[in-house]
Each structure stands twice: as structure tokens, then as C-alpha cells.
Amino acid sequence: MAALGETTNGGIARAAGLGDRALPYYLGTLMELGYVRNRHPLHGAANTARETRYAIADPLLRFWFRFVYPNLSRIPVLGPERSVRELVRPHFDAFCGEAFERLCREAIPLLHAAETITATTTIGEFWAKDVQIDTVALRDDGVIELGECKWGAVRSPAALRAELATKVPSFPNRRAATVRLRYFTRDRVRPPIAVSGAPHETWHHLAALYPDV
Predict the structure, then answer these.
(1) What spatial distance separates the first Cα and last Cα of the chain, rounded to whole Å?
(2) From 32, 118, 157, 202, which residue has the greatest number of CB atoms within 10 Å?
(3) Domain map (residue ranges) of the chain
(4) What angle do CA 190, 194, 196 make, to 5 degrees?
């Protein structure tokens, strides 16, 4: 049901027509098989059950439920070329965006190794009401790294910086840690001029994150 936009226990149960007591069995089985994963916001405190979200983990299933399953009756009529052009391409960047966020989180240990950062780090993401921070790295050396991922074209790096700046105050910095920012883009962009007194920031693009791929 996560493919249909439902990501919480209650929402999935309603969409699937299951009772709340039956749902854990099915979700547990899907997670054991590797088809579904659970997610929690990373904020340095214990997570509650209400914060749990679920997502389709298998990339092929994500594609199927996003583009194929809702259009089973249209695809035979349109044919393969029109189906790709009309059903897939207009929404493909949004589809790739989630995968790109996961790649960026997975790249953070590689960045730390290259930057000779040896702190023990917990990596994840954060969300709250009306706020989504794509990457979070809680380090045990008194630093928190918050990141914004942008798969689509970046027309204004300054606007991307401003977008993350509006989110930073929503992150519960309980340890009063030093905040550092990371920006991840598909293509190389020219970082905007540094602002005096602003948090330290670094900019990364896909080819530099995974140069050997």
C-alpha cells in the first residue's frame, strides 16, 4: 500500500481493508522477504510507534506499483513507446528522487573516510510536520550534518541553500551540536558564495560520490 501513498500503520490498514491487529503479521512477512522496509526519523531520541513509516524496498516493485499496476488497462492500448513517453517520463525524476536520497545517505561513510572524519556516526533522515530533511548524520564528536538531495535540475543553488536553511530550525538539536550542511545534486553545480557566519557546507554531485560506478 506504500505504493499508493499510504505509509503509516493506520493508512495501510485502511487501504488494504485489514484490521490493525492483522497488519503486523503481513508487514513483518514482507520485511523478512525484503520487499518492504520500515523508516524512522533520526533525531537522537527513542522513536515511537507513531513515527514509523513503511516503504517498498525492492526497486523493481517500486517501479511496478508506481507505473505499471495503476495503468494495466492503458498500457496495452498505448503500446510500449507511448506508455514510456506518456506514463513514465513525466514522473520519472520524482521516482528517481527517493532512490537518489538513499544513495546519498549510503555515501556519507565514504565522504567521512575521504574527509578523515573518524567519529562514530548514525545516519538516517528526519521528518516532522511539513518538514523533510533528506540526510542526517549524528556524529559523536559534537557535530550534526543535515543534507538536502536534489535529483532534478538545480536552476538556483542559492535557492537550494535557502530551502535547507528553512528546515534546519525544525531539527531537534538536543545536544546543541555544531550543525554542518551537505548538498547533494545529480549534476555538478557551482556553489553560491559563502555567507559569513553561516554553517559550514559542502556540495557533492553523483559522479563524485560514486566515481567508479
Answers:
(1) 32
(2) 157
(3) 2-96, 107-209
(4) 175
For the packed helices 9-16 and 23-32, what is the interaxial angle rounded to 10 degrees? Answer: 100
Tens of each residue's pLDDT in the chain, 213 residues = 444 567 777 777 777 777 767 788 888 888 899 899 888 999 988 888 788 888 888 889 999 999 999 999 999 999 999 999 999 999 999 899 989 999 999 999 999 999 999 999 999 999 988 899 999 999 999 999 999 999 999 999 999 999 999 999 999 998 899 999 999 999 999 999 988 888 999 999 999 998 876
The C-alpha cell at 124 is 538516517
Q: Are 139 and 120 in contact (CB under 8 A)?
A: yes
Question: Hey, what CATH class is 107-209 in?
Answer: alpha beta
Pick the CATH number of 2-96 from 1.20.1330, 1.10.10, 2.60.40, 1.10.490: 1.10.10
